[in-house]
Model the fold of this input.
Amino acid sequence: MKPGLSRGISKGAATVVALDERRAQRECVHARLEALFREHQASLLRFLTIRLGSVADARDCLQLVFARLLERSASLADENLASLLYICARNAATDELRRRKHSEAYTRPQDEGAQISDQAPSPDRQAQASQELTLLLSLLDELPPKCRAAFVSYKLEGLEYREIAARMGITESMVRKYVIKAVAYCAARFEELQGWE
Amino acid sequence: MGMSYPTARDEQAAYWYLKLQEPHVGAEDIQAALAWQADPDNRAAFDRVQNFWRAWPDEVAISSGTESSKRARPHLFWQAAAALVAFVSLGVWAVLSLQGPLSEPSTRQYAASIGQIRTVWLEDGTEVILGGATSIRTIFDDDVRRVVMSDGEALFSVAEEPERPFIVDVSNGSARVLGTTFNVHRGPDGATITVLDGIVQVDPPSWRPGASAVLNAGKQVAASLDGEIGEIREVDPLQVASWQSGTLVFADRTLRSIVADLNRYSAEPVTLASTEVADLRVSGNIKLDHIETWLQALGPAFGIDLLHDEHGMVLVSRIESRGR
Done:
């Protein structure tokens, strides 16, 4: 055997071992990810459905999260994978909501022009929606003033807790409590009043 | 607001629903929110909240469109109305509170244990955040809402009821309010009342006739143990209320009174070895989950050692501790 060749073989063997190790490691993370996906799939889907308001969108979003994470699996060895799963889902949902907002803004003029099409709400549906809105607004009148102010700022004005706190001159945690109280009360009342109709 | 709800479950549902919508909600909160909904009753409450939240059309949002700004107007009206109520009511209760109770009062007790910060809702909708080792008793009748507080610290967000004054009795004085937010601290040196929002009148106890103090937002007054009401001071109300988020802020207070507060949160009681140490005046911020670290840090600055004995932690002046 020529010395050169033997050197060549041993070097090649070392490379193979290193590649195998890396592949094994990657496959291990891959396997862990897949196991985690299976374990948390239902929860993640539920979470995304709550955030996005649509099961179909939630499924698409989840698919995207899995795909992205599997792509990155080589670099994920020591992280807390379960937490990462939820954080990725959360971020994907935020992206999706942002995308929707932009596309809505973009398509709105078109929608208005196309009101005659079958996509326009029926007069019945419009009347129902306006009735519902009246009911919602009247519920707010039942709230104590600060509770109402905090809720209106948060839900209708879209302000952040921090901004509302500054405006109302109270702590952020108080604002949160007011909003929670308003939502809890109105949600129960809303159901009750809808039941009566 | 109705008497039957929101229930604690409704509030938890609202809490978790809102939490899940936050852009930066953590993985632990997401999982906790989902675990909470595993219970069918909780899930029903959660769905109710979701149903309410989604019933709002997007275009009601105040900042977009002409239609929406029309709908938003009542909001401005409410804010103005709320501001007016706070002013007008000041004149009203002075008269009304002269009347005696006509009906059978309802009495309840609320308490937080050592180290606990707890939010309770009184029967009139008033929110009270109780600091560690604080208990209050409510005596409500048709004419007056009275709260008796003998020790500790509490932050009140009073539900507005112009016809029914809200009075906090701290035995060396009382704070009388209408629809407002204020902090009451009761320690070994007396009581301190700080107003975060609205107007509060602080009256001396009945056995010590004297002038009352009327406070608005950002004002604080102390009532000594013998019922004397001090000068009105300007303070940062958010700092005063910072205990509810886990930080005690002190400016020029005796260690005696600081330690009395710490003992409402510390798992291990803290004692002071001598009056010399107790009378020391200190300023600072204490994170309630790092009480011991803060006490240790007194060493280099004030010449005080933190020792441990079988009862807990003891603060000893360095000269004394050498003799031990």
Q: What stands out?
A: The first helix of chain A runs from residue 3 to 52. Residues 32 and 81 of chain A are 8 Å apart (CA to CA).
